[in-house]
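Sanity check record (used in CI):
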Amino acid sequence: MKQVDYLIIGGGAAGTTAAETIRTNDPKGSIIIVTEEPEPLYSRVLLPLYLEGQIPLEKLYLRTNQQYQEKLINLIKNVKANKVGTQNRKVLLSDGQEISYKKLLIASGGKAKHLDVPGSNLLGVTYLRTLTDANEIKDLVGKAQSAVVIGGWFVGLDFARIFRKANLATTCVTRGSGFGSRQVGENIGKLINLILEKNGVKLITQDQVREFVGKNQLEKVILESDQEIAAEIAGIGVGIALNTDYLDGSGIKINEGVVTNEYLETDTRDIWAAGDIAEFYDVIFGKQYKMGNWSNAVMQGKIAGQNMVAGWGGKGREQFMAVSAYIMPFFEANLSLIGDTSTDEKIEIIELGSVADGRMGRFYLRDGIIVGAALINLPADRVPIEELIKKRVKIRDNKNKLADPKFDLNSLL
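Expected output for FAD/NAD(P)-binding domain-containing protein:
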């Protein structure tokens, strides 16, 4: 049985950053990363650009095997955690190995949710989460003439862009009235629809898949409305399922994700969580919160690494405090999500711009303070909005000005 000072489950952005941060602060402590991936760290964010032919395969890789070795980080690939024993501080791996740890970081992220409908296992029904996924899509796209996209949010936009770049006849199917309408409202959804249609994408709204049909490979998609769409490839983007099954029986608190405090500590001693899987206490918004993006994973990995060296509950720990920002280019447009864009009865929403203008903003206010925003084709507004959220600037007297596209947000700072 291996024994290690720092064990990290997950070799993505959060896990790798945490390991490197630990090594910077603790030159002698032993570090093991276990990852299901067969590869060292690569950029999930760049996978669409790889599929569009904008970057070569080698540009995806952010680390080499040699770099792990030079930093004395033991990267164990092609293996996953099967069970975590918090009483004896042991983790059982899928290859039968058992590792005894002093400190543990859970950074195992998630997998693409799969559709459970007839024909979903056919060749041509694809997901975009890993490099293996991307290589499968790359091969299929080169042989296809028509494609369908299932799902109306970020991964769906990636698929639409990839398929149209390859000159495939592309149809997008969404359960809502428009792309993103369920996340950022009807009006921004309409604008996204318009941009997609201008770029040759056919849209079918308020519908969903009933069946994938084909003999050995996908040939067509049948919708609940009985519409049929000819397609040799389907790109599915219906969300992420967090990798938490191996934590069953561990006693580690799990809600939507692994629950932590503002220091990314779980309530189980000497165990931390970071990245997509962490449901952390957000000191800016005063509530438990999850962020699922690359930059957040990197930032949380750094904080988790520092705090693991400082020790669970120890002095010198640092709070994780950041305003999440996700930027999504698609065709000639760009979409940004900033801060907390969830809604409840206490959230006030103010919109600016219009579909006709080709640019829109949607502000989310709680008690006269901006807590989040969705922007389309308003890139210059992102930075001042982040600062307004971070500084919790009260703008009760100016909130109606937010609907004016000419209003300078910097004046509120």
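Residues 294-310 form the longest helix (17 residues). If this sentence no longer matches the regenerated tokens, the check is flagged for review.
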